[in-house]
Amino acid sequence: MIARLSRGPATVNELAEPFGITVQAVSRHIHVLEEAGLVTRTRDAQRRPVHLNAGALEELTSWIDGYRLAHESSFRALDGVLAGLKPGNHTTDNEKQGERS
User: Fold this and answer.
1) Can you give the pTM of this predicted structure?
2) What 8-state DSSP symbol labels residue 101?
């Protein structure tokens, strides 16, 4: 839905059509996005188009990027530790249990 709204405003019916889900389900999703400040609805005669709030989306993207970078750093550190392990120098939990039996 966000990708669709990035191309311009759309009604709930227009948003539901490509996904094959009910208008009610789309309305619930839109309500959540509204509560998060990511979209707004306006009134245009009988239509109520949904508009993407680009500023809020940019803030969200920045916030996600911060977490992504932190996790990538952790994974790089884990890769370094795993690369330092020599094959055959460790045992699995199953092997340890077999030794105890």
Assistant:
1) 0.60
2) -
